[in-house]
Each structure stands twice: as C-alpha cells, then as structure tokens.
Amino acid sequence: MVNKEEFRRKVILTAGQIFSRYGFRKTTMEEIATALKMGKSSIYYYFDSKEEIFEAIVRNEANILRNELTTAIKSVDSPVDKMKKYVFVRMKSFEKLANYYNAIFDKNLDHFDFIEQIREKYDREELAILRLILYHGSRKNVFSIVNSEYTALAIQTTLKGLEVPLFWKKREVNIESRLNAILDVLFNGILRKQ
Amino acid sequence: MVNKEEFRRKVILTAGQIFSRYGFRKTTMEEIATALKMGKSSIYYYFDSKEEIFEAIVRNEANILRNELTTAIKSVDSPVDKMKKYVFVRMKSFEKLANYYNAIFDKNLDHFDFIEQIREKYDREELAILRLILYHGSRKNVFSIVNSEYTALAIQTTLKGLEVPLFWKKREVNIESRLNAILDVLFNGILRKQ
DNA sequence: GAATTATCGACCAAATTATTCGAAAACTTT
DNA sequence: AAAGTTTTCGAATAATTTGGTCGATAATTC
Fold first, then answer.
1. Of B10, B3, B35, B37, which Cα lies nearest the Cα of B22?
2. DSSP class of residue A193?
3. How many contacts (CB atoms, under 8 Å) link A and B?
4. Does the CB of B48 fall within 7 Å of any strand D atom?
5. Range with the lowest mean pLDDT among A5-14, A44-53, A139-148, B109-118?
6. Which fold does the domain B50-190 belong to in CATH?
7. Is the CB of B45 under 7 A from strand C?
8. CB distance A133 to A72 below 8 Å
9. Mutation choice for B interface testing from A21, A25, A26, A31 by most B CBs within 10 A
10. How close A152 comes to chain B (CA, Å)?
11. What pLDDT score was predicted for residue B171?
C-alpha cells in the first residue's frame, strides 16, 4: 500500500458493499477481511472498531452524494433546470445512502446520534443550496416566491417525504413516477404562470 | 391456525424467503419468529430444529419445481415443443432452487448428503420424463435418435452444465441467452434434418 | 371444567464474533 | 546489514449472539 489513508479508503469501499448488502449486524469483520484478502486482525491497524468503519462509510457516502449534487446543478444554467436537476439527482443518489440508514436500524440504536449529526449538517447545506437557486430564480423573475428561505424549507420537506419509501425498502414502490409527479406539482406551484 | 400441517407450510414459506435471501447461517430463528409474529420458542412446537425447517423448504421447493415442469409439458402437444418447454422451464425455475443450494454451501457441509438424496431422486424422475418425450418423438419420427436412454442422459448433463452459473450467482451471466443457444444446438443436433 | 393444543418468557450451553496482543514478516533508513 | 519502522497475522480472550430446552400459562376443544 502507498499509505495508510489510501488503504482506509479501500476498506471503506469494500466494507461498504458488504454492509449495504447485509446490514451492520450480519456483516462480520472476517467477511470484510476476506474480501480484502487479509487477516481480520490486520484491519484493526487501520480502524479501531467495526463501528468506526461503518461511520466512515456513511460519512464517505454523504460526501459522494454532496459532490454528485453540486456537479449536477453546475451542469445546467437556468434556475428552473437547476432546481429540477437537484431534486431529481438528490432522490436518485439517495437510494444508496438509504441502504446505510437502513443498516443503522439493524445496528444498535444507541449509536443513532452520530448519523443525526451528519444528517443535520447535510440538511443545512442543502437548505443553503436550495435557497441560492430560489434566490437567483426570483431575481431573474422565473420563480414567484415571497421568501426563498421558507420555500427552500418547503421543498426540503417534500424531499424528505420522498425518502420515506426508500427507507421502507418496498421494492414495489415506484420512486420514479412519484418523483416526477412531485416535480410537476412543485413547479406548477412555484413557476410564474405565463 | 386450522391445523398443525397448515402452520408448518406457513413457516416454510416465510422462512424460505429469509433463508434464500440471507443463507442458512445468517438467518436466525428469532428473525423467522418475528416474521411470523411469534416468539421463537413457539416454532419449536412445529419443528425440531432450524435444520428441519431448512430441509422442509428444499423438499418443498423441489416439489414446486416438479409440478411446474409436469404442467409445462402437458401444456403443449408435439414432442419437440414438450422438450423445448421442459428445458426452458426447468432452467427458469431452477433459479429459485439454486438459492437454497447456495444456502447449503453456507451451511455446515456435513449435512450435504440429505440434499444429495433429494437431488438423486429428482434426477431419476427427470431422466424418466426426458426418456419418455424422446421415445414418443422417435416413434413419431421427429427425433433421430438411436437410444432414448443415452440421449436423455446427454440432455440432462447439458442441463446440469447450465446450472453451474446459477450456483456461482454471478448476476452478469446472462442465463437466457446461454439457454437459447443451447436449445438451438440441442435441437439442430437431434432434430431430423428435413 | 377437565383435557388438549398452542404460545411464550426465562434460561442455558454452544457457537460466533469483535477485539487485543505479542510476535513475526516486510519494508526503510541509517 | 543492523537498527528502526510499518504492516500483517495467529492465537487467545471477552462479549455477544443464538439454537434449543422447559415449565408455566394462555387458548381452545371436548
């Protein structure tokens, strides 16, 4: 290995796949070790505990999601497109992250607070992004909103509502159509009638 | 519950889903019990052990497969269609059963012999069916075969070969196309040129 | 209301599993 | 090539999980 940090990333990637498939409890250190072609005790050279690995994974996955989102809204120009893109990509990428949230339910619920921290931070950042898009959109007169702060909160609430079926992992629920419906409602509501 | 047997079937169905998803080891009695909305000790009123449940599942699944196959070949008339149908349905339905075979690898390999028994019985029955189809086909002059016994064995061997990728569970393997290719080869080989 | 059938909580022994630790490789640096 | 550093691992341990038992207790049938 080139350095410690690089190997940590490798562990996070490998363990991430197994955790997201089997959940926290059903994934053993030995499985992770075997997938990494090492003895399980070697992993403890890089991580202090199974939980630390898991937490690193969630943090990592949250970062990936954040990056996906920022590049997504940079890829289009108009505030309307930015907002549409944001909502769409957010829900699509969130599916991966939802696996880990589910794994936490599988995990000891005592350690629930750490993910709440990550989530709070993420929510704050999201609000800022939404607010910015809305602000520019209202300046350019394509959004007819009174207060971008409140509207951003409303949209975020809707997005959180969309998450729920992802958690309950019912494969029958068609996220796509539900998402499109909400996008429609959202924009017919806030777009200035022309 | 109406009677004991009926509840056993319910357990088999429920546990079957969990076993096929997580394998033998990773499925706990408590999970099965929770899925059945009971205490885990209650299950022992119907089954003696975790293994007995598992074995009942495999037996049950093998029966379902057998039924699917016999109704499938009854649904068509000509020997050629019967043979095509048989090979096709056999491979399609086998996918479910393969999950349990995989679960056995996960299980203690000491108890491998019981599945061998089921498998042997199943193989014998299969050979009889194949032989019958071939026999009628050659009587009606649509199969150009010397000995329906040997040809049945050859076809069964091919089918077993098709199973292998199912065991190795690589989702990348496209069973369908492989299956069609083999159906083609099989029939261009044994169908009388006209 | 006795007898039978079904469920469950508490418990145990065995197995599994996360984690520790010292020592041995493997690799760097002097 | 010796001394130091980093990385890996086997064996042991401590904690947890889990299959299974048993007696008590509901629920149902007779």
1. B35
2. P
3. 4
4. yes
5. B109-118
6. Tetracycline Repressor; domain 2 (1.10.357)
7. yes
8. no
9. A26
10. 40
11. 44
In contact, A121 and A151? CB cutoff 8 Å: no
- What pLDDT score does B174 carry? 64
Q: Inform me whether the pLDDT recorded for A168 exceeds 80.
A: no
Which nucleotides on chain D have any atom < 7 A from a protein Cβ?
Answer: 6-11, 17-23
Question: Distance (Å, rounded) from C-alpha B43 to C-alpha B20?
Answer: 19
The CATH code that applies to domain A49-190 is: 1.10.357.10
Is the four-CA dihedral B19, B61, B131, B193 of positive or negative sign? negative
Of B86, B88, B4, B100, whose CA–CA distance to B54 is shortest?
B100
Asked whether strand D has any atom less than 7 Å from the CB of A38, the reply is: yes
Closest CA to B91 of B126, B48, B115, B138: B126
Residue pLDDT, tens place only, B22-72: 888 899 999 999 999 999 999 999 999 998 998 899 889 889 989 999 999
In angstroms, the CA of B101 and the C1' of D13 are apart by 35
Type and span of the H or E element at B21: helix B4-26
In what helix (H) or strand (E) does residue A19 lie, and over which residues does it extend? Answer: helix A4-22
Summarize pLDDT for B135-147 with one digit per residue, the tens: 998 888 888 777 8
